[in-house]
Design brief:
The complex is a heterodimer of chains A (120) and B (137). Chain A is of the alpha/beta class and 120 residues long. Chain A has helices at 17-30, 61-70, 79-84, 102-109, and strands spanning 3-8, 34-39, 73-78, 96-99, 113-117. Chain A has one domain: DsrEFH-like (Hypothetical Protein Ychn, Chain: A). Classes of the chains: A alpha/beta (120), B alpha/beta (137).
Chain lengths: 120, 137
């Protein structure tokens, strides 16, 4: 099976791009693929722990935890993008890594497909 | 040992969103990607400005004095300093009434030797076709 690298740049609230990307990750994993998920720019909001789930807003923490539990999903947030938004290491949701942008390029290097989902 | 080509296609104008800045910072990150790769493996980036994205290449940007942040111009010059391939779509330069004189074509002022190239979209298409992955910003 293959490896899919998904790069996301949209915010969690205000766009459904991250919802789509996480759903796509789930579908790929169900088919037996591995997924590397890169969150940069406003998408680093997805890595912030402690978000309250309101029905009016996207809330993906539970789904992400299910994906992490499969062992075939890894998610990394851009460290500089997160810090610039005030998301510190201790604010990061369990399961997430934080790295610089070269992580995304390295993941793309070994990916069978790269899906780059741009920002708003 | 392998080389993977990544094409960063910038089609959004500067400053309205973070997209073009992130395109350049991600492309520049190719300079340190080796720490994650096997010996001899390389990522080769190319940056292509198309559509309204060519506006990122305008000279004399005032982001620092206006917003207190680094300019796209500085990131673009850093890209040239690091010898990244930078292509600018000729048709879009003409469509927007720009000239080569108004665009950042080199980074000589900071010691760069590589120059940006204004090329037809068909040349950019060739670059995209020869790339392993396309990243649109």
């Amino acid at each position: 099976m293959g490896k899919l690298t998904i790069g996301c740049f949209s915010s969690l609230v205000g766009s459904l791009s991250l919802d789509f990307a996480v759903k796509l990750s789930e579908a790929a994993i169900k088919k037996g693929h591995k997924v590397d998920f890169w969150a940069s720019g406003n998408a680093t909001m997805l890595s912030k722990k402690g978000q309250r789930a309101f029905k009016d807003y996207s809330a993906l923490e539970k789904k992400l935890q299910e994906l992490f539990a499969t062992g075939n999903f890894q998610a990394t947030a851009c460290e500089a993008c997160a810090e610039a938004r005030g998301y510190r290491k201790e604010d990061t949701m369990e399961g997430w890594q934080r790295h610089s942008m070269d992580w995304y390029l390295a993941s793309s290097f070994s990916a069978d497909r790269v899906l780059h989902i741009g920002g708003d | 040992m392998a080389t993977k080509k990544l094409a960063f296609v910038v089609k959004t104008p500067p400053y309205k969103t973070e997209a073009s800045r992130l395109a350049l910072t991600h492309a520049i990150a190719s300079q340190t990607v080796e720490i994650y790769l096997e010996d001899g493996d390389l990522v080769e980036p190319a940056v292509a400005f198309c559509g309204d994205g060519v506006l990122n290449c305008l000279k004399n940007q005032k982001a620092m004095s206006t917003y207190g942040i680094t300019s796209i111009e500085q990131h673009l010059k850093n890209s040239l300093l690091l010898d990244l391939k930078v292509l600018v779509c000729k048709e879009d330069v003409e469509r927007l009434g720009l000239s080569e004189d108004s665009l950042i074509m080199d980074a000589e002022d900071i010691g760069g030797e590589t120059k940006a190239q204004i090329v037809s979209f068909s040349e950019i298409q060739k670059e995209l076709e020869s790339s392993d992955h396309l990243l649109f910003f």
